[in-house]
Specification:
This protein has about 625 residues and is an all-alpha fold. The chain contains 23 helices and no strands. The chain is about 55% helix and about 0% strand. Helix 6 runs parallel beside helix 8 and helix 13 packs parallel to helix 23. The termini are far apart.
Length: about 625
């Protein structure tokens, strides 16, 4: 027995050694560190019950652990890099964590390299929520090295980051003037466009909540997301997103300052006198941004600074404080002048178009002359207008001989179209007449009378238009063909103000006074109003306002959006003479919690800013 036992014992170690060697080989294979992220693996089975086997569960747990270790390693590497950056010397004050813009790559090169990089780039695709970047102190150093020209999008950048808008918007423009509706669906769609643009522009990883990329105010009481939603709902269209969104993405200040429009808009809708608490806080933040940028020589004159000022400027228009608006306009004009004038923006038309639009509307509302700096015009867009293209036609704008887009809208009745056609002819007649009057001729004084354009045809045409206008029925008249047509009625009241202003050579605010409309009615057998002297006639601006409220403006009148602009612009201009016009409240910056600076009014603050630029 002993020999057998000893022989068996002698044979046992080799067997144990073989098992140990196999286990070591398996452990070695398992401990091989893979390069890059975990690879995708598939579980296959011939019967669904096999997915519950121990081998299948073990494989899933193993793969999950590999993925977890990979993510932990990424965090450690990221933490070590952050530690090295924090150890480096930095100027006093907190530096903002501004995300780095992703660089567009050539499509062919990107396609060839994508297989090599795989998901390893995800560690570079982290954009921190900008709340930490905008909660620092309001010193000039908190936004160092941002807002310079390297942050601005060029035309090639726009084409690279937003190719889906290039053809889509053109296709929409060919059939509809505007794609807008005041609805949650529209708001959500435009807000997602903003978030997708941010995520694409800053190359955000898939694992991060896209809404985290929205920058936040320093003031924790302000909800940037809620204000952005309201801003998108009230003002954003597909055309807006195409032209303005690339500029907004160039700096967090621009996105945040745009909420001034939404906040002041909500104040107007809620009939708040002056500024609400939210609006005051938003303006405080925006003015702080402007002050910081003016304090930095690298950002004083860049595009982002001008855009932030324009947002504040546009937000003040709801209050219609003429003094504040004119101060803003002079500040914008000074900044444009320091940049070299309007012509220097030829490669950034979207920005200068918005700047000029804000200033022009300020002049319209205030009934003031245009500043000399802003009279310089941009080179005209050479793109030809096709016969079928949908345009925002109105009595103020009709590049074709007749209206083409307006008749396609269901709101436009025959009576409305005839009325608008008369107003278009009146506009062309007035412009042509005044152009001739302003021509300068190098001739003798004897020939001046001979070359003066005759006024008989001009006066006769205006008289004919006035006569037709005075005979038009009101939508309040029961049984008429236009009864209850409030779009027609809004156009009729606007045409009355418009024609009176041109015929009498008076501002719109004067033409809207019912006492002046008597002169228009006196030349016709029957007037629009009753002939009772004791009848108190309402101000036409008030009448127009009440009529507009009866129309559906939730979609901006679709293909008649240009007409709605014409109506709204005249109503805003003529409103200043209405007895119901509220007295504007001047923004007193002294009551705003701006640290380390004594109270000053808007004009003083703008003087300080103008001195800086």
């Amino acid at each position: 027995m002993a020999p057998e036992s000893s022989s068996a014992a002698a044979e046992a170690p080799p067997a144990s050694s073989n098992v140990t060697d196999q286990s070591k080989e398996k452990l070695k294979r398992r401990r091989v560190k893979r390069e890059g992220p975990p690879q995708l693996q598939f579980l296959t089975a011939t019967d669904p019950s096999q997915f519950k086997d121990e081998d299948a569960k073990k494989s899933v747990r193993s793969q999950a652990m590999i993925h977890w270790r990979h993510e932990e390693d990424k965090k450690k590497r990221k933490g070590s890099r952050k530690h090295v950056e924090e150890a480096a010397p930095a100027p006093p004050g907190r530096r903002s964590s501004i995300p780095t813009r992703a660089k567009p790559q050539d499509s062919a090169h990107s396609q060839s390299e994508s297989s090599k990089r795989g998901d390893a780039q995800s560690q570079h695709r982290v954009l921190r929520a900008a709340s930490s970047s905008l909660t620092s102190d309001s010193d000039a150093s908190s936004f160092t090295d941002v807002g310079s020209s390297t942050w601005q999008l060029t035309a090639s950048d726009t084409a690279s980051y937003f190719p889906r808008w290039q053809n889509k918007t053109r296709a929409v423009a060919e059939k509809d003037v505007i794609e807008y509706e005041a609805s949650e669906r529209h708001e959500e769609r435009q807000l997602r466009s903003l978030v997708v643009g941010l995520a694409s522009f800053y190359d955000v990883g898939r694992t991060q909540d896209p809404f985290d990329v929205l920058p936040q105010f320093r003031n924790p009481q302000l909800d940037a997301l809620n204000l952005s939603r309201n801003c998108m709902r009230a003002f954003a269209t597909d055309a807006t997103m195409k032209k303005w969104l690339p500029l907004m993405l160039s700096h967090p200040h621009i996105i945040l300052s745009s909420t001034v429009l939404a906040s002041t808009w909500l104040d107007m809708q809620n009939k708040v006198s002056g500024d609400s608490t939210t609006t005051a806080m938003v303006k405080t933040e925006t003015i702080g941004m402007i002050r910081e940028r003016f304090a930095n020589s690298n950002t004083q004159l860049d595009d982002a600074t001008l855009i932030i000022i324009l947002h504040l400027f546009a937000g003040e228009m709801w209050v219609c404080n003429e003094q504040a608006l004119r101060v803003h306009e002079r500040g914008v004009a000074a900044l444009i002048s320091r940049r070299g004038g309007v012509s220097t923006f030829v490669h950034n038309r979207a920005l200068v178009e918005v700047a000029l639009a804000c200033c022009y509307h300020c002049d319209i509302f205030c009934e003031a002359e245009m500043l000399q700096t802003l009279r310089e015009s941009l080179p005209a867009d050479s793109a030809p207008v096709s016969a079928e293209e949908a345009l925002p036609e109105s009595p103020l704008y009709c590049p074709r001989d007749t209206f083409v887009t307006i008749p396609e809208d269901a709101r436009c009745s025959t009576s409305t179209l005839d009325l608008l056609s008369d107003m278009k002819d009146l506009t062309n007649l007035f412009v042509a007449h005044n152009t001739k009057l302003n021509q300068v001729h190098d001739i003798d004084a004897v020939d001046i009378e001979r070359l003066s354009p005759p006024d008989e045809a001009y006066e006769a045409t205006i008289c004919a238009i006035r006569t037709r206008l005075a005979h038009l029925p009101s939508a309040h008249t029961p049984g008429s063909s236009v009864s209850g047509d409030w779009v027609y009625e809004a156009c009729r009241i606007t045409a009355t103000i418009y024609t009176t202003a041109i015929a009498m050579g008076v501002p719109f605010s004067v033409a809207a006074d019912p006492n002046y409309t008597k002169l228009l009615e006196s030349s016709t057998p029957s007037g629009t109003w009753e002939s009772d002297e004791h009848f108190i006639k309402p101000h036409l601006a008030e009448t127009l306002h009440e009529t507009l409220k009866r129309t559906d403006t939730s979609n901006l009148w679709k293909n008649m959006s240009g007409v709605l602009y014409w109506v709204g612009a005249e109503r805003a201009t003529s409103w200043s003479s209405s007895p119901e016009c509220p007295q504007p409240v001047v923004l007193d910056l002294g009551r705003l919690p701006v640290p380390a600076e004594p109270p000053r009014r808007m004009s003083t603050r703008w003087k300080e800013m103008s001195d800086l630029i």
